[in-house]
Design a protein that fits this description.
Elements: H1 4-10, H2 15-21, E1 27-30, E2 33-36, H3 42-51, E3 53-57, E4 63-67, H4 71-78, E5 90-97, E6 103-113, E7 116-121, H5 125-130, E8 138-141, E9 146-152, H6 156-164, E10 176-181, E11 184-189, E12 198-204, H7 208-218, E13 224-226, H8 229-238, H9 288-295, E14 300-307, H10 309-319, E15 330-337, E16 349-357, E17 362-370, E18 379-385, E19 391-400
Helix pairs in contact: 2-7, 3-8
């Protein structure tokens, strides 16, 4: 078994294939790996996600394997949803919290057998282990066992049929299937992080390059393109999908896989994250009591913001040493102000994941605002930073409902 340093040097299971497609020098560091950030053009890659089909290397996503007779009990103890409803060969998206009701992480829970689960999301190995007392369950870091190749876009079904000779229309959203591609057995989940139709292919490490090359070859009639992390980041914002480290800090003891400042001010509950629909108060889970109290309070709402991109560019040109903003998605939070009498001069909330959306042809972001300022049409001022992290002044933004686009991933 290779150690972590060797694995990082070799890249993800798809690195040999993806690196050959790079036409830029834009790489993204994700945990101990680097993956393509932009292959050719972010707008073109995003357009493939929205209008054709894109191939995306999501391999560095942390993966925890839970096995044993009490694996299901641990999953149900930690997740805010009723995990007794999760059947074998199905996936469920869920948040997990600490005892104060603060998000430790969120992600997908795969059930592959009665006593075999994989959780893919922010690293939470230490947190899971700390809550497994008295249970017969083994928790193992399985992050390097699989490559994850995400196929996203309206032609994803066509590509999968061409690659496998099978009709995949019967695989419903959040179900798991099996397939053989380029002679290799893979796991197929109807899932994704873009809001579009698509699949996540879990590929054995040694098969990565062969599977990638086969899909790329048979996908040409469907407009397939490799898409980097920049396009995926914009796509998930357009779809209203929150992301740990970008939009909140995990409240658990584990180290973060993204290089961001970890502060208590960015700890939030699932309710503040817009995930209240995923809390089942009829089941018993860690943090339930705290979340029941939080649900009775108004708290902050998770909403979207529309900006005038020209105002951002002007602010950067006039007040930034480097003169630039929005060259990529802004990871981090900036304060929001409102001119109302009771809020004058004091931050009323924060904005995160600020980006320019080629799909919408405008700048957008998420916002965490008090209930009285969360109605669509409310105008607020956001204190922006440039690409170097320096403040460049306030620009107006208008509250809108999330998601920014139509979500199509569960259709078909």
């Amino acid at each position: 078994m290779q150690d972590k340093a060797e694995l990082a040097g070799n890249g993800t299971p798809f690195h040999a294939a993806t690196s050959a497609e790079m036409r830029t020098t834009w790489w993204y560091q994700w945990d101990k790996y680097i993956v393509p950030d932009v292959y050719t053009s972010m707008p073109q890659e995003l357009a493939a996600i929205r209008n054709a089909v894109a191939m995306i290397d999501m391999s560095p996503l942390p993966k925890m394997e839970l096995r044993g007779p009490d694996a299901h009990r641990l999953v149900d103890r930690l997740m805010t949803r009723d995990m007794t409803r999760l059947a074998v060969d199905h996936v469920m998206y869920a948040p997990w919290c600490n005892r104060d009701g603060l998000l430790v992480g969120d992600g997908l829970v795969f059930r592959l057998a009665d006593d075999w689960f994989i959780v893919s999301g922010e690293t939470s190995h230490a947190w899971f282990a700390s809550q497994a007392g008295g249970l017969q369950v083994t928790i193992r870091n399985a992050s390097d066992d699989y490559g994850i190749l995400s196929l996203q876009g309206p032609r994803a079904f066509d590509l999968m049929q061409a690659a496998t000779g099978r009709d995949w229309s019967g695989l419903k959203f959040s179900q798991i299937g099996r397939a053989a591609i380029a002679g290799h057995d893979i796991l197929v989940a109807r899932q994704g992080f873009t809001g579009e139709l698509g699949f996540e292919l879990w590929v054995p490490r040694a098969a990565g390059a062969a599977v990638w090359q086969e899909l790329q070859a048979v996908g040409q009639p469907f407009g397939v393109l490799p898409a980097g992390e920049y396009a995926v980041d914009v796509a998930r914002i357009e779809a209203g999908l929150i992301l740990v480290s970008a939009d909140y800090n995990g409240a658990g003891p584990d180290p973060r896989t993204a290089r961001v400042d970890v502060t208590d001010e960015l700890n939030i509950t699932p309710i503040e994250a817009g995930l209240g629909r995923l809390i089942d108060f009829g089941s018993d889970f860690v943090g339930k009591q705290a979340l029941q109290a939080a649900a009775a309070e108004p708290g902050r709402r998770f909403v979207g913001l529309h900006y005038d991109a020209s105002a951002i560019v002007t602010a950067a040109a006039e007040n930034s040493a480097c003169g630039t903003a929005l060259s990529r998605v802004y990871w981090g939070s900036v304060p929001i102000f409102h001119k109302g009498t009771s809020h004058a001069g004091k931050p009323v909330g924060r904005a995160s994941s600020l980006a320019f959306s080629p799909t919408l042809k405008r700048a957008i972001s998420f916002a965490f605002l008090p209930a009285e300022l969360s109605s669509p049409g409310t105008v607020v001022d956001v204190e922006l930073k440039d690409d170097e992290g320096a403040a460049i002044g306030r620009v107006p933004a208008t509250v809108v409902s999330l998601p920014f686009i139509e979500i199509r991933r569960s259709k078909g």
